[in-house]
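Standup notes
- DV: blocked on the single-chain target, sequence here:
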Amino acid sequence: MTKRGTRSKRPKTRDPVSEQPPWEQPRMRFDPLRAVSDDELEAIHHASLRVLRETGIDFLDKTARSQLAAAGAQVTGERVRFDPELVERLVATAPAEFILHGREPHRDLKFGGNHIIYTSVASPPFVTGLGRGRRDGNRIDYRNLIKMGQVLNAVHTVAGYPVEPMDIHPSIRHLEATHDMLTLSDKAPFVYSLGRQRNLDAIEMVRIARGVDDVQFDNETSIYSVINASTPLRYDSVMLHGIQEMSARNQLIVITPFTLAGAMAPVTIAGAVVLQNAEALAGIAYTQVVRAGSPVAYGGFTSNVDMRSGSPAFGTPEYWKACLLGGQLARRYGLPYRSSNVNASNSVDAQSAYESTIAIWGAVMGGVNLLLHGAGWLEGGLLTSYEKFVIDADLLNMVTEMLRPITVDDAALAVDAIAEVGPGGHFFGSSHTQERYASEHFQPMVSAWSNYETWDENGRLEAHQRAERLAHQIIAAHEEPPMPENRRAELNEFLERRVREGGVETDF
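- DV (later): unblocked, structure below
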């Protein structure tokens, strides 16, 4: 959130929600960093192809194996092996850029190229904040966090459940949660690939909410899903069903192996990324078997574990290197790149801030297009924090400001202003400053706003305390985005019918 001008002239009261930077999609204007040389990148590429040719990867779905065999892969039992030429031919059919459509047109996002998308946190089972401690995910907190993601312009899209609403029965959770997602927010929605019918239900609900027919929906990517390999070297049936349903309808799949060096992957960064790349290429290739030209993103989620405890570590130098390397590989294949804002801290503290900063910086400088878990992640993904959500939005706004081009023209060079002030003066009251300060300076919303000597009550609060206050204000500022009554009635009818039918089968 922005506050413009000198701190000495700060008003006593302010509305940080209305003062936030406008809704916009940042663009990467720097050359992405390279973690390795071109020769070393090719060595990783060829090592990945060797893994797919010699060791292969298990596909635990008969339909998928049949489709891959028809495409030219070698199938023995559940194991699928790929010739390098087949992998490269299939991957080459995926688009480099496309539009991810929001529920309403003003929320459309450019996906790929140098465009960046920030998402809210997704999938933690627990939540904390708003003056309360760690608790099970529930619908009230789920809805509140969806509202925050709608209000905050730094969040471009919902990336799943910002906390799992565990008080909704699993048989109908996807129905109720998707309905909330589509009515409380007009930003591009998400579906978990946890069973074919869940994909089908979410696809239909998004189609209804957008007010389009099947033909238009299939021509306009409007929903996305993350597909994780079961590392090492396995795709299970529910993930493959998600690809089958989503890619067949031209909807976005984000292939993301979750490779932890030293645990499910080799302990070296190069070895872990070889495994990540092999799994990613296999999944990406399969999306193109289902439907050539369907949108797919290359996801990197390689980090390391604490070898003394086995616990996942995030925001580490190893994660940073893997972010850069994943971006290099995605660019080599001409694919959009997904990475994440992550940390392993259990609270909103210095560790959570610096690990997130490392993760964000590694992703952005690696050329990220989709920054998943952009706001709110704690405890290695087990915990969503309202306060971290606010602080992360600050970080994302600062990154966006950093990516904004520097103006260099006669007025910006300020030679006349320097002459006007002259030796020993100051620029606070100069016309050059007064004409520009409202548009030239970014101020974080959780800043203390003032020097120690002039602190007010807000200034004496710690960052997480100011963030808690802001979280309450952000939720209170939410207004349900308008939806035409005919769409809302059809969406409600679909929800009620599918709930009456029992949703999907579960084991309990």
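- Follow-up: Confidence is low (pLDDT under 50) at residues 1-12.
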